[in-house]
Design a protein that fits this description.
By secondary structure, this protein is mostly beta strands. The chain has one helix and 15 strands. The chain folds into two domains: 120 residues, Immunoglobulin-like (Sandwich); 94 residues, Immunoglobulin-like (Sandwich), CATH 2.60.40. Helix content is 9%, strand content 48%. The relative contact order is 0.13.
Length: 250
């Protein structure tokens, strides 16, 4: 028995072309994105809320996708906090990693040294992206994300217990004053307050109190000498007023 095989040149060429095309596609797929050129996409910058008291922490999360050719390019992402005048109050490290990055930061607002006009201010959290091409000297510097947040001082409330607004001359009155901020779950613990008693716009008594763990202090106004007939005023002044919106309570 004998056999023969017919080789068709056209079929061989087609097979070679198909193989070459597959290798070409595979090569494109395997090319790192960094070789394809600079890009900074899929950026995200979020905070846990939009308004903070000035003694709180800002919890910030960010993510981005950065690509560049490290042979002749450089690029990085940096997180910044600025005021209304674009002055940088805080910034993170520079992040050069090629690919997808995800970071989080905890920022203590007290370290920003803010000036609160009318007891509040606005600051800006920004994702800054820098790029330079060493072959062409092209430079790109831009903000990919910007968030505006409000910073406020805490509002203080005072609740009086057993306080008598009308006294007969010589009558005793021991009352409690409880201080809290925002709601009754945040008491002004271990805060120093100055107590002033006035009569006819003249200070007739002053002393300092320190609140306990429940924001409480006790005061027997009957111990104040020279209480006059008529209207007397009792005021509490928060001596350490860096965090609080109201510093005089009457």
């Amino acid at each position: 028995l004998s056999f023969y095989i017919l080789i068709n040149k056209i079929d061989v060429k087609k097979k070679i072309n198909v193989v070459l095309f597959l290798f070409f596609l595979l090569g494109i797929i395997l090319i790192p994105k960094s070789v394809l050129g600079f890009s900074c996409n899929n950026t995200l910058l979020v905070t846990d809320k939009n308004t903070y008291n000035n003694n709180e922490n800002i919890y910030l999360n960010g993510s981005w996708e950065l690509y560049y050719n490290s042979g002749f390019e450089v690029s990085y992402v940096q997180i910044q906090i600025t005021n209304n005048f674009d002055k940088i109050l805080w910034n993170s490290s520079n992040y050069y990693v090629i690919g997808i990055s995800q970071k989080n930061w905890t920022i203590n607002i007290q370290f920003l040294n803010l000036t609160l006009t009318n007891y509040s201010c606005k600051i800006y959290l920004k994702m800054y992206n820098y790029y330079k091409n060493f072959n062409t000297n092209e430079v790109v510097a831009t903000y990919r994300e910007i968030i505006a947040i409000n910073i406020t001082k805490r509002e203080v409330d005072c609740e009086l217990t057993n306080f008598k607004s009308n006294l007969i001359y010589g009558e005793s009155n021991l009352f409690n004053a409880q201080f809290y901020s925002g709601n009754t779950s945040f008491y002004l613990e271990n805060e120093t307050l100055q107590c002033l008693t006035r009569n006819n716009d003249e200070v007739i008594y002053q002393t300092d109190f320190t609140t306990d763990k429940d924001g409480l202090l006790s005061f027997n106004i009957s111990t104040v000498k020279h209480l006059g007939l008529g209207r007397n005023y009792v005021s509490f002044i928060i001596k350490n007023n860096s965090h609080y919106w109201i510093n005089i309570l009457k």
